[in-house]
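ingest -> validate -> predict -> emit
validate: passed (alphabet ok, no gaps, 67 aa)
predict: started
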Amino acid sequence: MVGIRAAAVNNMMQAKRACASLGANMMVVEMPGRTYFEIRQVILLMMNTKGCPEGSQALLERLDARS
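emit:
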């Protein structure tokens, strides 16, 4: 699907990294053991992510052109 930048994360540190490096707009969160607070923080982080960083966007466009 065009425009989806998904990442699988297990904790907040991984979620921050996915947003910073990929501009993730969809996350799959490993749920067992996660508190309501942790899930809420991941959702808030994604809501505040402004988009895909330029370097990552260029790479994703090149990869998309190959498929």
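The chain has one domain: 6-66.
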